[in-house]
Write a structure and sequence with these properties.
- GO terms for molecular function: TBP-class protein binding.
- It holds the Pfam family TFIIB.
- The chain is globular, with a radius of gyration of 12 Å.
- The longest helix has 15 residues, at about 10-25.
- By secondary structure, the chain is an all-alpha fold.
- It is built from four helices and no strands.
């Protein structure tokens, strides 16, 4: 994420929360923003806002070798 500059200027906590949301949706145990927000200490809106940028750059950020299916990601 840092190398791509996708979330440049966002707080590290916001970036981490959005990444957790993205990766959890690629796994067999997806988590909602409602579940992640209180643990990360950010709002659901913050996660959703950052996730929009990750989703837009998903093809650049995720490669086939990562084992994730980009089609499984919810659209923002």
């Amino acid at each position: 994420v840092k190398e791509c500059g996708t979330l440049a200027g966002k707080s590290p906590v916001s970036v981490a929360a959005a990444c957790i949301y993205l990766v959890s949706n690629l796994s067999s145990h997806p988590k909602s923003t409602r579940e992640i927000a209180p643990v990360a200490g950010v709002s659901e809106a913050t996660i959703n806002n950052s996730y929009k940028f990750l989703y837009h750059d998903k093809d650049k950020l995720l490669e086939d070798k990562e084992g994730g299916n980009c089609k499984a990601l919810p659209s923002p």
